[in-house]
Amino acid sequence: MKERLQVEADGTQVYLSALAFANGSEAWSVRAFNASRKQYQMRDAYYDIGVPRWIRHVPIPLVSGKGIPTIMYLDLLAMRKLGINNGSIKQAMIFQVHHLESVLQMLDHQRKHWRGSIEDQFRTTRLYQMRAITLLQSGHRIKNIQLIGGQQLPIGSVIAEAPGYLGKGVIDELLHQYKVTLRTRVPWRFNVRLQLEAL
Question: Residue 45 is part of which domain span?
Answer without folding.
Answer: 2-198
